[in-house]
Every structure is written in structure tokens, then in C-alpha cells.
């Protein structure tokens, strides 16, 4: 009853706002009681609208009477179309546009009723752009035309910039202007509006001509069938003037397809608790459409669900309310963020002022510090000048003594320096000879390893040649061994290349050591000549050999056999670490 009351209030609101305030309550109440089949109560009406009343538009005016004496007594046994037509009659003349429209007054009435069904539940009543798009799409589909989404998007943008939606009269003018039905004649538009009106307002889920078999005479008669959420009515023709009967639907009803018989095709059966109805459709497509429509209606009755268009309207409203709530929540959060930002700005301004005050104090303190620093610098400069004079006198005395001492020590330093340089030259020569011998042995060992690797490579090559000459039966097994040997061969080749690189590096090191040895020998000879020339009585003491030296292909070795073994161990350790 709450949903019915809301639907009635929208039509009553149009009629109420169109009448003069001094007589709107009484005139409207009489008409409402008549079309809603509610008993008149003239005493209560006159009592409510006394001269001292605060007026029919206030809370103490018309609404309390309307709720108490009319709407609460509505039982639903009234003609909704007649009720809407009465309210339309009271408000259309005042509000309907005088501009010529492409739709008739009857079509405008149907659009007005559809507006009340799709409009928002707040006053003054408006229909939002989403519902306008839904209605225009339904009308366009009913006309069999294509929907122009881009055209409506432009219209929607222009509408959103100026208002939230359209009133009923603006919606009638929009549809009547033909803006979204260009190329369609008045009759096509009228039929489309009527089809949408039947679906949304009269709850007509499907309608059309079919043959029905009689219960008594068993003859077949053509009837106009109208399917609604809980009933199927059939008439003589589509003008709905001569009603022949009803098929009451409930959750226990079912529909079944029948085979063709007795010259009738496309048969199906509707089973109810008390009766069974045999019907013939015009073709198989119509038959299937009617069976599916009736089955869907019965399923809705079993589930207790409203008609699809009402359920869809409720879902759209819930979605809009959800989006509106989310938008309001977002706006609230934005306001909170803005307020927090303003507080932060105030805090930053306070901090900035504190920083400016601190900077001013710091500047004053810096000024005082600089002044003190200048005074200290002046005092320090005077003391520094006095110290410079004293130091200059002392330096003159020290310079005189130092000159005498320097002449005495110069001779000693020259002799010591010459002796140190001679020792260093001898050490360089000894070290160069040792490095030369190490490099020579390293080169010999690398050559031996290279020869061994080459012999091993030749051996693997011969084995590979022998493997190729083996029988076909052994080829598969030997192929795996050949791959392994090839991998080993590749590893050996890499090692050989590495040995060649090391041999080249050893040669380079040998050349460097040789150059160092020559340089050391030249330096030794030069220093020997200098010392002999400078001090005739000085005899150079050279290190002697306590152990027998090794003899190499290039002459005596620079180190003993024990030293050679120590160096080989060190070299092998370094090689193992690098690998």
C-alpha cells in the first residue's frame, strides 16, 4: 500500500498545484473520492477547511485530510487510468504547452502518466536524465528505429549544465517536438507511446491475436490476448471493448507445447487449477514467445517478485541513491580535507612567523658576534706584529749558526747518500736476476704443459678418427662418448689458449725483468765508478756466494735450488687460486 500511495500522490500533486488554493482542497477531494471509490465524508471535509484554518498547502491544511480520509481508505478496487485522467484533466489545461506538438492530447496524457511512474520521489517532481534516456530508448525501440546515443549525450550535457532534470510538461514537449523521432509519422510515434504505456503503466507483458478453443462448443475463435503479471485477459478485438474472459495465473499454473492436430498448428496448453486452455498461435515464433512470456510470469508469481519493469525501475533508483550517497561521502571527505588543509595552512603560517622572528634574533646575534670578532682580530694583529719582530731577530741568529753547521753536515750527507744509492743499486741487480730466473723457469714449464696438451689433443683426435671407423651398431653408443670427448677437447683448447696467454705474459714479464736487470747493471757500474772516483780509499764490499749456484742455459742462476722450489710452490698456489 505504501507504493500505491506514492504513485497516487504524484498525480494528486499535479492536480493540487494546478488549482486555486482557496478551492483546490474541496474540489480535488470530491473528485478523488469518486474515482478511488472512497465514501464521501462532507462533515470532515467542511470541518477541516474552516475559515480559520492555516491553509490547504500547510501541514495542518490539505495533506492531513488527504491521508486520513482518502488515501488510508483506498482499497485498490479502482480504475488507475480513470484516476490519472481525472488528475490530468485538472492540471493539463494550465500547464500544457500551447506550442503545436507532433503527438495528440491522448499521447501527451500517456507520457504524463509514464512521467509519474519514472519520476523521483521528491517534490517538485522531475525526471532525471537516466530515466529520460530509458524512456526515449523504449519509445525508439517500439518505433523500430535506431537509438542515437551521441545525440542524446549532447542533449544530456546541455541539460546537466542548467538543471537536474525535466518536469512532466517539459518531457511532453521534448517527445512532442520530434527531436528524437525524426523521420517517423504521428501514427508510428503514437503506437510506440501506447506500447510503452501498456508495458509500464498497465503492466502489459505481451499482447496479440491468437485462436482459443471453446470449453463448451469446442470451436476455435480468434481473440486478442493481453498478458499481465497475474492474469491473461482475452477480448474480441484489440480495442478492448468486448472482454470475453480471463485466465487467472498463479504459481501452480504451467504451460506446455502441444503437437499439431485437427488441422491446427502451433498449439500450446495453459493449465490452471480449475481449467485448462488450449490456444493456437499464428506461427512457431509467436508460439515460443507466448510460452516463454507465460512461463516467466508464473516464475515471478512463484518468487513473489514484481514485474520486470518495476523491478528494473527500483534497481535504477537504488543505483542512483547509492551513487548519490557515494558522491555526498566524497564531498564530505573533500570538505574535511579542505578544512584540514586550511588548518595546516594556518599552522604553517604560524611556523613561518616563528621562523621569521627566530631569523631576526639570529641576525642580531650574528651582528654582535661579527663586531666582537673584528675587535678580537684587531687585538690579535697587534700581538702578531710584535711576535714577528722577535721571531725575525731569533731567525737571523739561528741562520748564522745553521750556515756553519750546514757546511759541516753537507759532506757527511753526501757520503751517506752515495752509500745508500749504491746499496739500492746492488739490491735491484740481485732482485732482477732472481726475477729473470723465475720467469725463465715459468716459461719452460709453460712450454712443457703446452707440448703435453698438444700431445693429448693429437691423441684425442686419433681416438675420434678411430671411433668414426667403427661399425654402425656401435655408432650410437660412441656418439655420446664422442660428444663428451669433444667437450673435453674444447675445455683443453680453452686451457691451451689460456696457457698461451700466460706464456705471452711470462715473455712480457721476462722482457721487463731483462730491461730492469740491464738498468740495474748500468746503475751499479755507474755508482762503482763514482765511488771509486770520489773516494779512492773506499773498497766496495759485494755479497759473496755461500751455496753453489745453479747453472742454466743462459749462465749462472740468480738464486739457489731451495729458493727455486719455494718460488715454484708459491706459483702453483697462485695458479690454483686463480682457476
UniProtKB/TrEMBL annotation:
Domain of life, source organism: Eukaryota
What is the stated purpose of this protein?
Phosphatidylinositol 3,4,5-trisphosphate-dependent guanine nucleotide exchange factor (GEF) which, independently of RAS, transduces signals from tyrosine kinase receptors to RAC. It also mediates signaling of membrane ruffling. Regulates the actin cytoskeleton as an effector or adapter protein in response to agonist stimulated phosphatidylinositol (3,4)-bisphosphate production and cell protrusion.
InterPro entries for this protein: EF-hand_SWAP70_N (IPR057836), PH-like_dom_sf (IPR011993), PH_domain (IPR001849), PH_SWAP70 (IPR057837)
Record bears the keyword Ribosomal protein: no
One GO cellular component from the entry? cytoplasm
Q: Which residues does UniProt call coiled coil? A: 309-530
Name used for this protein in its record: Switch-associated protein 70
**What's the source species for this entry?**
Xiphorhynchus elegans
Pfam family example for this protein? EF-hand_SWAP70_N
Its subcellular locations are: Cell membrane; Cell projection, Lamellipodium; Cytoplasm; Nucleus
- Asked if the keyword Coiled coil belongs to this entry, the reply reads yes
| Description of how the protein assembles with itself and partners | The SWAP complex consists of NPM1, NCL, PARP1 and SWAP70.
Q: Which Gene3D superfamilies match?
A: Pleckstrin-homology domain (PH domain)/Phosphotyrosine-binding domain (PTB)
Instruction: Report the residue ranges that make up the PH domain in this protein.
Output: 203-299
Q: Which GO terms describe its molecular function?
A: DNA binding
Entry keywords, A to Z: Cell membrane, Cell projection, Coiled coil, Cytoplasm, DNA-binding, Membrane, Nucleus, Phosphoprotein
Q: Which PANTHER family is this protein grouped with?
A: SWAP-70 RECOMBINASE (PTHR14383), SWITCH-ASSOCIATED PROTEIN 70 (PTHR14383:SF6)
Amino acid at each position: 500500500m505504501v507504493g500505491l500511495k506514492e504513485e497516487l500522490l504524484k498525480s494528486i500533486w499535479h492536480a493540487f498545484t494546478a488549482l486555486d488554493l482557496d478551492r483546490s482542497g474541496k474540489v480535488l477531494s470530491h473528485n478523488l473520492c469518486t474515482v478511488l471509490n472512497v465514501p464521501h465524508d462532507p462533515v470532515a471535509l467542511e470541518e477541516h477547511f474552516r475559515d480559520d484554518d492555516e491553509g490547504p498547502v500547510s501541514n495542518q491544511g490539505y495533506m492531513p485530510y488527504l491521508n486520513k480520509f482518502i488515501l488510508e481508505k483506498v482499497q485498490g478496487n479502482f480504475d488507475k487510468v480513470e484516476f490519472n485522467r481525472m488528475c490530468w484533466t485538472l492540471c493539463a489545461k494550465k500547464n500544457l504547452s500551447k506550442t503545436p506538438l507532433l503527438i495528440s492530447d491522448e499521447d501527451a496524457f500517456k507520457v504524463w502518466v509514464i512521467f509519474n511512474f519514472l519520476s523521483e520521489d521528491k517534490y517538485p517532481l522531475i525526471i532525471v536524465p537516466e530515466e529520460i534516456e530509458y524512456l526515449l530508448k523504449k519509445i525508439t525501440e517500439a518505433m523500430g528505429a535506431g537509438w542515437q546515443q551521441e545525440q542524446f549525450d549532447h542533449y544530456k550535457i546541455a541539460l546537466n549544465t542548467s538543471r537536474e532534470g525535466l518536469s512532466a510538461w517539459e518531457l511532453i514537449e521534448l517527445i512532442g517536438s520530434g527531436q528524437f523521432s525524426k523521420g517517423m509519422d504521428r501514427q508510428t510515434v503514437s503506437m510506440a507511446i501506447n506500447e510503452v504505456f501498456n508495458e509500464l503503466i498497465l503492466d502489459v507483458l505481451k499482447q496479440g491475436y491468437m485462436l482459443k478453443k471453446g470449453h463448451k462448443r469446442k470451436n476455435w475463435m480468434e481473440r486478442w490476448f493481453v498478458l499481465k503479471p497475474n492474469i491473461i485477459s482475452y477480448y474480441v478485438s484489440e480495442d478492448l471493448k468486448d472482454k470475453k474472459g480471463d485466465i487467472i495465473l498463479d504459481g501452480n499454473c504451467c504451460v506446455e507445447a502441444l503437437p499439431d492436430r485437427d488441422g491446427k498448428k502451433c498449439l500450446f496448453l495453459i493449465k490452471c487449477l480449475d481449467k485448462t486452455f488450449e490456444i493456437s498461435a499464428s506461427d512457431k515464433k509467436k508460439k515460443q514467445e507466448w510460452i516463454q512470456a507465460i512461463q516467466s510470469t508464473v516464475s515471478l508469481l512463484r518468487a513473489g517478485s514484481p514485474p520486470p519493469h518495476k523491478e528494473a525501475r527500483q534497481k535504477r533508483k537504488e543505483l542512483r541513491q547509492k551513487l548519490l550517497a557515494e558522491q555526498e561521502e566524497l564531498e564530505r571527505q573533500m570538505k574535511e580535507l579542505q578544512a584540514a588543509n586550511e588548518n595546516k595552512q594556518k599552522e604553517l603560517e604560524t611556523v613561518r612567523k616563528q621562523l621569521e622572528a627566530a631569523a631576526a634574533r639570529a641576525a642580531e646575534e650574528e651582528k654582535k658576534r661579527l663586531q666582537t670578532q673584528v675587535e678580537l682580530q684587531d687585538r690579535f694583529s697587534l700581538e702578531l706584529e710584535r711576535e714577528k719582530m722577535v721571531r725575525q731577530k731569533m731567525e737571523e741568529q739561528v741562520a748564522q749558526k745553521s750556515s756553519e753547521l750546514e757546511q759541516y753536515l753537507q759532506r757527511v750527507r753526501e757520503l751517506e747518500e752515495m752509500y745508500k744509492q749504491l746499496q739500492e743499486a746492488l739490491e735491484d741487480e740481485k732482485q732482477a736476476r732472481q726475477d729473470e730466473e723465475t720467469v725463465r723457469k715459468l716459461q719452460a714449464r709453460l712450454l712443457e704443459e703446452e707440448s703435453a696438451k698438444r700431445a693429448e689433443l693429437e691423441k684425442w683426435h686419433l681416438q675420434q678418427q678411430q671411433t668414426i671407423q667403427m661399425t654402425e651398431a656401435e655408432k650410437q653408443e660412441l656418439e655420446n662418448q664422442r660428444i663428451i670427448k669433444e667437450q673435453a677437447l674444447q675445455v683443453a683448447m680453452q686451457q691451451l689458449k689460456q696457457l698461451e696467454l700466460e706464456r705471452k705474459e711470462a715473455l712480457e714479464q721476462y722482457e721487463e725483468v731483462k730491461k730492469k736487470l740491464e738498468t740495474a747493471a748500468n746503475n751499479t757500474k755507474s755508482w762503482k765508478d763514482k765511488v771509486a772516483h770520489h773516494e779512492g780509499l773506499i773498497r766496495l764490499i759485494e755479497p759473496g756466494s755461500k751455496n753453489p749456484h745453479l747453472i742454466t742455459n743462459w749462465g749462472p742462476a740468480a738464486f739457489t735450488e731451495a729458493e727455486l722450489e719455494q718460488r715454484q710452490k708459491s706459483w702453483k698456489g697462485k695458479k690454483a687460486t686463480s682457476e
